[in-house]
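Worked problem 6 (solution included).
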Amino acid sequence: MTSAAERPVLFLDVDGPLIPFGSSSSSLQAPASGPEVAVDQGNPLLGRLAPDLGLRLTALGCDLVWASTWMEEANEAVAPRIGLPRLPVVAWPDACADGSPRGLHWKTRHLVESANGRPFIWVDDEISSIDRLWVAAQHPGPSLLHRVDPTKGLEDADFSVLADWLSAIGGEPGHRDRR
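Solution. The predicted structure is:
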């Protein structure tokens, strides 16, 4: 079992993983409701958020962190719709010209720095093999870079992969590296 300081971090993107881009009616979910949720926050795609995602993400036992260009807006427009509290937000650097290898996602280097050696999961729809190779070489702890199909968003199979990885590394549900 990991200590509180070693509790895995789950870096979470919004567009693609939480808001699927698919046009089928099966990807459209009824939005969460309640007095704290504005009607549409000016974005009609917010209606595609599955209201149970927050509960499912919280059940993984990770420290959830927004890793999205939505930045603080994810706390205002997304979190209440899916049942999450306010989460920390990765503060992206101003310039992305950081000498990264060609093909490395602009988020990758910064997420490894933000993890600060802790086990982490990165859920995004733009992860590539270059990102996986770079993280394997640069991050001292376990990591899982999980690419979500942006036309479907997070599905049961994705949650199974995340939970299995956590179990394997000994976190809650688990902990060991399976890239």
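Discussion: Residues 9 and 63 are 5 Å apart (CA to CA).
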